[in-house]
Amino acid sequence: MKNRNRYKKGFIVLPCWLLFLFTSLFATAQTTNISGIVNTYHRVVEIIPAKACVRVASVAGLNLNTKILLVQMKGATINTSNNSSFGTITSLNEAGNYETGTICSIIGDSVFLFHNLLNTYSPAAGKVQLVQFAEYYSANVTDTVKAASWNNTTGTGGVIALYADQDISLNAPVYADSAGFRGGSFLQSNGTCSDAFPANGYIYTGSNTSPQNGAYKGEGIADVTSGQTGGRGAPANGGGGGNNHNNSGGGGGNLTAGGIGGGNSSNGVACTATLRGEAGKALSSNTGLKIYSGGGGGAGHSNNGLSNVSGGNGGGIIFIWATELNGNNRSISANGGRGGNSISDGAGGGGGGGTIIMHVTNYTGAVTIEANGGNGGNSDDGGNIGRCFGGGGGGSGGAIYFTAAVPAITTNINGGAAGIESSRDVSCDPVPQAAGDGANGLITSNYTFSRSMDPAGYCTFLLSSGLIYFNVAVIDKKVLLKWKTANPLPIQYFEVEKRTGTNNWTSLLTVGSTDMISEYAATDTHPDQGYNHYRLKITGKNNIVSYSEIRRVYVNLSGAGFEIFPNPATTRITINRKNNSPAELRITDTYGRVIFQQKITTGSAEIILPPLSKGIYFVVIDNAVKKLEIR
Length: 631
Hints:
The protein is mostly beta strands. The protein has four domains: 5-25 and 463-555, Immunoglobulin-like (Sandwich), CATH 2.60.40.10; 33-134, Thrombin, subunit H, CATH 2.40.10; 135-452, no CATH class; 562-630, Sandwich (Immunoglobulin-like), CATH 2.60.40. The chain is elongated.
């Protein structure tokens, strides 16, 4: 076929024998102001693991080459007996399974990923959703960034996922408070009350108000039937609803348990049984492989209807991925909501704190990251003399994960406080039936989040080229690019595209495909100072277009940097820097994998190398890259 080459200023084609480094440094360019709901949410209807394929109810808003978060919100199996065992988890199943990925192709309702899936999922039973990361070069939060509230009907929402090549600056909060599992809804019962069966059960039809023998339970990772929606039994991490008469709801849980609801301590009048909402149960993270929204608090039982005694909603899920976070004294929060206060009725339980994952390299400025449990609702006995009811149970604290050491910032994972009972009548039992606090949550450092690095063969098949790799590297202030295809025959030509500071892509070079040649290379001789983005556009002979993954490299044109001596080396090197401030030295292999890192605090430092095989490596300091040869 005819060899089609179209050259543009600043590019040359290179010999195919060059080996290039794929760096994993992130990009910087124009800052984008963000606020409101920035993610798109997509209900998963089927997963086809052999093709790394996720079928969704709607692909509207999804884009190629964007990161996604796949998460199963529910699907646990619980004991459904009408006794104290109700809600005990018998199997987590796939509930809480999650991973990140990148979209390779979208065909109809099918989303194909670049990498094979790590986990199994059960979309039919477990409410699986695909959340597209909101991606930016640099993001400035100008008004509150929020999660769409979790919707159990659509099986979507409750998640914030932010990615920035360089930095995220907070000039307003990132807020997933009360965005997780729903608290039990307030519903006013008639005045019928009882101290015995059926008022002492653990499950009821919550919508029955004649009477409502058990208020609505909070939502958790296990769905319940309509006949199990009310009553004091706690469904997994959801809090139980207060029973007839006027008992309070339990707090929702996450990796730790919520607090039990307050009870009836009336004395000398009818309907005095203490049948309070049970606490939402603690869940297992399966050594960090599962994440959850906070459980909803149970509602308080109410017949007076003087106030809304719903349970508080649980906190949502937040995933932040950036090179730097500028805190500016703002907050990132996934707190549980407060339970509803009561007046001579049962109060609502607090929602459990949610889950936050922080994959951030550097933190500047003060920031508060918190996943607190919601407080239980307070109970004011003053509306009905002789009636005394404890407050709502507190929600548990949530979970915060840092992929490095815990930074020097403010973190809170406090359990919610039990609701306070006030205006107790002198005729009430001297011993109040007080609610319980939610347990404190958990903070984990050096966390490895779930993402696959195993290339999906079907994605390679979908790319008309059968693209094997597309790599980029910086050598002598030029950006070198190399790619290889498994089958050049169906390809008409390649285009190297570069992303501009306005987030647009421009074509820099077109290279015609040759039937017998599978490897191609080029160089950008005039890259920009800072980070540069490239992708490969592949046009087939049938005019169908596909794209490679996006590659990112940092180019330092200022002359600042460092020198390595000796080079080649064997067991040690000396680094001479032009900058005396502390920095981190990293040594990577030719695939960009970090194999050694060390803090250096002076301009000159001797580095004892780990055992390294002979070959080429790269030293990265202050975003500058130098080749190191080991002999």
